Every structure is written in structure tokens, then in C-alpha cells.
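User: Predict structure, ligand (2S)-2-hydroxybutanedioic acid.
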Amino acid sequence: SSVSRPRSAENRQIVPSAGQIRASTFKVAILGAAGGIGQPLSLLIKMSPLISGLHLYDIANVKGVAADLSHCNTPAQILDFTGPAELANSLKDVDVVVIPAGVPRKPGMTRDDLFNINAGIVRTLVEAVADNSPNAFIQIISNPVNSTVPIAAEVLKKKGVYDPKKLFGVTTLDVVRANTFVAQKKNLRLIDVDVPVVGGHAGITILPLLSKTKPSVTFTQDEIEQLTIRIQNAGTEVVEAKAGAGSATLSMAYAAARFVESSLRALDGDPDVYECSYIQSELTELPFFASRIKLGKKGVEAVIASDLEGLTEYEQKSLEALKPELKASIEKGIAFANK
Ligand code: NAD
Ligand code: LMR
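Assistant: Predicted complex:
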């Protein structure tokens, strides 16, 4: 079954070995490309042999980033787009749109504290995506993801172009962190470890399913609680360490590059591509929920429902506990988009 596939398919490196290099065909747009995430993400994506064009959009400072990146001798052609007048052109003919535009947290803030600024940014950008690249995969990084993805869905519905299989909240960083922390704690080879993380992308809505860790690992209850809390607070750990200078950018760029590369492999016909993502979902009673999914040419091809079966009592309780918060964040996003 899909869950017993080889581990190597899940933990594929974002930089392919020479033997894997194929013709570059896909175009990717990054909205917010001059930011803390946008710059290293653009660099990592520029390294993909699957990409023929990389469109960098931001409201400022994007020309320099583009000039700099364009000197790397990898196939992707870099084009730069500055400000709202050039937004539409940045989206023409692209297969994947990644959105890391918006303000990051400072110490003491929750992700929801970013709502007032970022909700409007995401709404405006997704309106442009709907008008100019309605068939692209849309990957939202801007926080609060629990609300910005429902906002994007509503915008796309209003424009009559919503395809729930092609709208993704990027939660790959939660998986990247879970894999790292579990490997460290249990002294495992990082490349072998895969922990599904479900729910949403804020505080207790981030639920790592440690009982589903591959390879199979035994944890004490203490270890489970410590690891769960560390994974849930990892974003805050970085916000505090940066002490006012922003939130995770490098690990986020790494995680998003992995998600983009997986999407491109799926678009390219690879039949074995799985990632966790926050999507419109019927897995629970909530309309949006992060879980493992199979990616295909048309976007979400399947939701791996078995991950929510046979949960431990702790996981089941945590799942029930996260639902009210996640539901409220979803409703807040929908209300914003419809007001
Ligand atoms: P940043 O401030 O360094 O960069 C944001 C960029 O967005 C800037 O270059 C800015 O000019 C640009 N921008 C602002 N308004 C824009 C608009 N209307 N159109 C286009 N671009 C616009 O912030 P960052 O550290 O890169 O973080 C960006 C967002 O990503 C934040 O909301 C942060 O909370 C979120 N984030 C999400 C995850 C996740 O796991 N999903 C992880 C880390 C950060
Ligand atoms: C993260 O998880 O690092 C991001 O969502 C940024 C944040 O505000 O913590």
C-alpha cells in the first residue's frame, strides 16, 4: 500500500544526483521573493534541474536578488517583477506559485497576531493568481497558515477557479523539524526518519503522530510529551533566538524547496510522491486539515487516511483538543474573505 512504500521516496534530497537530471520544463513564481524566506528559497529552487523559469515577485528589492541569482549556472531563467503593476506578468504561464509574502512574528506574538496584515496580502496575491495562473499549484507559506489557506480558497471560489486539489498550506517545516528532533533523541539516521505531522500550523494545532514514526520507534510517555511540545514550539524557539529579527527563514526555505521539488516531480509524472500539507479535507469534520497526501499531476491525488487510524490515547486526545482552535482559525479566514 501507499504507506509501505520505500523510505527513500519520502526523504528524497532536494538536490538531485547527476543521474536524475532531466530536461527542465516547469516554471515557478515566488511572491515575496526578496524576503527572509524568499531569497534562500529562490536559491534552492534555482538549483532544481526540473525548472526552466523562476519568476521573482516582490514589492521591493527584487532586481538585485534576481541579478545575483541569475549568475548561477543552472538551467532556470530568472525573471524579476517589482510591485503590483508587474504582478500579473509574474504569474503568466507558471506551474507552481509559492507565497511567502507577509510579515513575520516577533517575540511575544502568536501567528494569529499576523492576521491583520497578512490576510489582506494573501487575498490580493491570490486574486492575481486566480486571474493569471488559475491552473497552477498554489502553495501558501504566509502566516497564519490555518487562516490564510481558507482565505485563498474563498478568493478562488469567488473567481470561479477554485480547485481544492491545487491549494496547499506549506507545513513541510513541521515534518522537517519532527524528523530532526526524533532522529536526535533516538540516535537514528536522519535520512531514515519520517514522522507524519497533522492538524494545522500553529501551537497545539501542530500534531506530530509519533506513534506513526518510520522506522518504528518506541518512546516513553515523557519522550512523547517533550518531543510533541518541542515540535509545536519550534517556530517560537527560532523567533526567540532571533530576538526581534524575524522567524525561521533558512529551515523554512529548505522545507518549502522540498515541497516545491516534490510537486514538480509529481507534475513530471513520478507516481511515488508523498508530503504532508494543509488542504481542504474530509479526513475530520474540519473543512481544512493537514495530513499526508499523495501528489500527482493534478495536485492532491489521495489523502492518507490510515494515518489517523489506530492513534494512541495521547494523540487522540491531542487531536480532539486542537479542533476548536483550528476551526476558529478557519472560520476567521472565511469570514475575512467574505466581508
Ligand atoms: P520577511 O519580512 O523577511 O519577507 C517577507 C517579504 O514579503 C518581504 O520581502 C516583503 O517585501 C514581501 N511582501 C510584503 N508584502 C507583500 C506584497 N503585498 N506582495 C508581495 N510581497 C510582499 O518575512 P519572512 O521571514 O520571509 O516570512 C514571510 C512569512 O512566512 C511570514 O508571514 C511568516 O510568518 C511566514 N512563515 C511561515 C512558515 C511556515 O511554516 N508556513 C515558516 C516561516 C515563516
Ligand atoms: C515557523 O513555524 O517557524 C513559522 O510558522 C514562523 C513562526 O512564526 O513561527
